[in-house]
Amino acid sequence: MRVITHHSAARLWLLCTPGTSYAFRLDADDVPRHVHWGRPLSLEQAVAVAADLPAEDPGGDDPGGEEYAVEGGLRFGAPSLTVRFADGVRGFAWRFVSHSVEGGRLTLSFTDRVRCLSLDLNYRIRDGHDQIERWAVLTAGEQVDVLRLDSAAWTLPARDDYRVSHVVGEWGREFQLRRDHVPVGESVFTSRLGITGQHAGPWLMLDAQDAAEEHGEVWSAALAWSGSRRITVRRDPYGRASWTGGFGHEGLVWKLAAGEQLETPVFTGLYAPDGFGGTSRRWHAFVEGEVLPARPAERPLIFNSWEATEFDISEKQQRELAGLAAGLGVEVFVVDDAWFGARTGDAAGLGDWWPNPDRFPQGLGPLADQVRALGMGFGLWVEPEAVNPDSDLFRGHPDWVLSQDGRTRTQRRNQHVLNFARRDVREWAVEWLVRTVTELDVAFLKWDMNRPFSEAGQPGATDPDRVWIEHTRGVYEVMDRLRAARPGLYLESCAGGGGRADLGVLSRADQIWTSDNTDAADRVAIQHGHGQLLPARTMGAWVTDSPNSHTARATSIRYRFHVSMAGALGIGGDLRNWSEEDLAWARMLVGQYKRIRPVVHGGVQYRLDHDAVQYVTRDEAVVFQFQPSALTRTTARTRLKGLDPDARYQDEDTGAVHEGAVLLSHGLPPLLPFDRTSELVHLRRLPR
Ligand code: DGJ
């Protein structure tokens, strides 16, 4: 149930989702002020809360608690909106114009009291979800510089203390979950990369230092944007916390001419009363139901050639790998980098998107046909936003890359960034992408992006900093047009591993390449961080060789599979070197994966004690237990969650029957024998 109500005398709006309420009001000066974000309230209760809010700020010099802070007057916090008019005047003086409700969407329209500038604050709630989506639209009636235009500001109720949960990392160490104390002051969570980045996720969760996995209040928000961003968390000395966030990092200026509009990405907020587990499950349901492209939950089981071959690929070797992959039950065979142009290493060929004539003399058609004859779909790697200087594309269009006059064009991985803010670049990308996936009947495309922006300019442009917005929008446009042309295509978002994982790209990509670190033990921590916000079906997870090429750690085939089977399983090892025994294990585990996949990709996820994770549907449950280290191994039983206490469940592999109530209160036995580093238990509810 979702309801938006308005109390005209109190000038208050109340948004009610199935489990939460959100309220704000206009004060006597038309300034929107936050009232409530938390447990469900009636309209009368929300009005009473608003009436009790102090009219004056306790500190006396900063109103605080604003729904969307602007500059002007005695405001000294981080503004959500900063503008500067041509005559140097700054700030926004609120005048309320109107409000409208359309379905689950509420729009409040404001204008500046004297200047020609309008601002719409938008809210949207969706059936069956507790998320509140917010975004802003700025319309200029006169020329104005926009120094900050956040999507939304989010205010928490006063608490004694606050903690922020977020993910940090780098290449090979993405999605490392941290829970840090929020200091009094301002803490900035940002990307200046032009892409989402591996160093930090575009989301955060705040609690009052009292939430745990299954209890306690958690307030969270995720920005649907794949470019630079800034989220500023503010904690004041009076016990209040809030954050404001949106696209762009500090120092950028966007110019609006009279009549021009700038719309922010959506910043989605969520209140959950049931801990980090409840928060994650609500995000998973929202991402699955409202963000991801509509398609069946189950993701295809892919083979990807990268870790097996890197740049050293040939048609013969790919055919051999395809034969072995098909023998294991793989569903899509993906040729990674180095199939095109003069790309035999990372120094040349990027941008020349035709099959390398030395490696594929007849093109990719014969390989794609063989892959299909083996019963698999054909997949390809691309990196459309990047170009090697040593390429025909760059030689023909040196002006297509991000650059600034007189500045060195810095290279990273021997490549530049193509400026997708340019229409001609987007048209070029759409043309070759649609042609390639159509001609080869490509079923799965891995879209990579291996470098951040540098010298991010567009010589001659009147509004050069716009590239930070328009590049990302350009990428979205190309992805959208590609999907429209090939609706069946699966898209995987990758940026040197998990560097582009956000709700913006996930409304056009089906999954994320989570990390180039495929070491199973490291992956448990990486997957734990990924799953805080994103569901298992979006989490690409390959089984690769042992010892691992990244960490040199040797692990059993069974353990590697179990870790990857908790996400969207793929295989990325050099199957030519796998022993007969490992290939037999792989065939068996792939068969088991296909039986549990509807539960992992379509069920509800619970994180259990002892590094265990569980997926539950009405009739089935799948539990993964990971205990690779003797130092952390426990003899305690792992209690299950989300089961029917009155039902009985049968273990699909051993036939053992367990009572739901017993599994919920006493759990499964610990891992035995001790040489097992992981266990997978598949339970099915028995009919009454
Ligand atoms: C970075 C990706 O993360 C890898 O999986 C692989 O696709 C390489 N790029 C190819 O250059």
TrEMBL record:
CDD domains xrefs: GH36
Keyword Hydrolase: yes
Substrates-to-products reaction catalysed: Hydrolysis of terminal, non-reducing alpha-D-galactose residues in alpha-D-galactosides, including galactose oligosaccharides, galactomannans and galactolipids
Coiled coil: none
Annotated ranges, domain Glycosyl hydrolase family 36 N-terminal: 32-257
EC category name: hydrolase
Domain Glycosyl hydrolase family 36 C-terminal, first and last residues per copy: 611-683
Pfam families the record matches: Glyco_hydro_36C, Glyco_hydro_36N, Melibiase
Superkingdom of source: Bacteria
Enzyme Commission number(s) from the entry: 3.2.1.22
Protein keywords: Glycosidase, Hydrolase
Family: Belongs to the glycosyl hydrolase.
Name of this chain's protein: Alpha-galactosidase
Originating organism: Streptomyces anulatus
